[in-house]
Amino acid sequence: MALLFGACGTITGQEPAREQEQGVRANPFYSTTDTTTLNVPLAEWQRILSPQLYHVAFEKGTERPFTGKFEGEVKDGVFRCAVCGSALFDPKTKFESGTGWPSFYAPLAADRIQDRIDPGHGMIRDEVLCARCGAHLGHVFEDGPKPTGLRYCINAVSLDLGE
Predict the structure, then answer these.
(1) Which of 81, 84, 130, 153 is catalytic?
(2) Per-residue pLDDT for the chain (163 aa), expressed as one digit of tens each?
(3) Which residue of 7, 72, 100, 152 is most buried, as measured by CB atoms within 10 A?
(4) What are the domain boundaries of the chain?
(5) Does residue 65 contact residue 100 with C-beta atoms inside 8 Å?
(6) For the whole prediction, is pTM greater than 0.85?
(7) Check: CATH 2.170.150.20 for 2-162?
(8) Where does the chain have alpha helices with state H?
């Protein structure tokens, strides 16, 4: 009997992971072509997105360093907002910052992101948001490489890599 309950627990434990993998694919607001600004209630985002993506994107969470899916990886394609699909960063602007989060020295286009002052955690930082959906992506710092001198430090869970 205990073995039966243990097996059920394992199956149930796997379902949330499957839901997380389907989080973006089941998202009706995700588009690689639509640039219309979204105004979606937080309750709807919470219903659609995986718990981790919702936490980072709308509760200003931060994933642990050196755990993201793009650690050290540079590929062809475009880095997109994992919440809405907006094109955000060119892989050619990605660099190894040693911080444990994907880092870029410039956005794909200035109108794809928004900067906002973030006074949290006892310091003043510039928060980076997706301009289309308002999702928290990370922060920008003035310690990056040339040509901009900027380091967009972005949570990997906030990004998709696609065409």
Answers:
(1) 153
(2) 444 333 332 222 333 333 444 444 589 999 999 999 999 999 999 999 999 999 999 999 999 999 988 876 667 899 999 999 999 999 999 999 999 999 999 999 999 999 887 767 677 779 999 999 999 999 999 999 999 999 999 999 999 998 8
(3) 152
(4) 2-162
(5) yes
(6) no
(7) yes
(8) 2-21, 42-48, 51-58
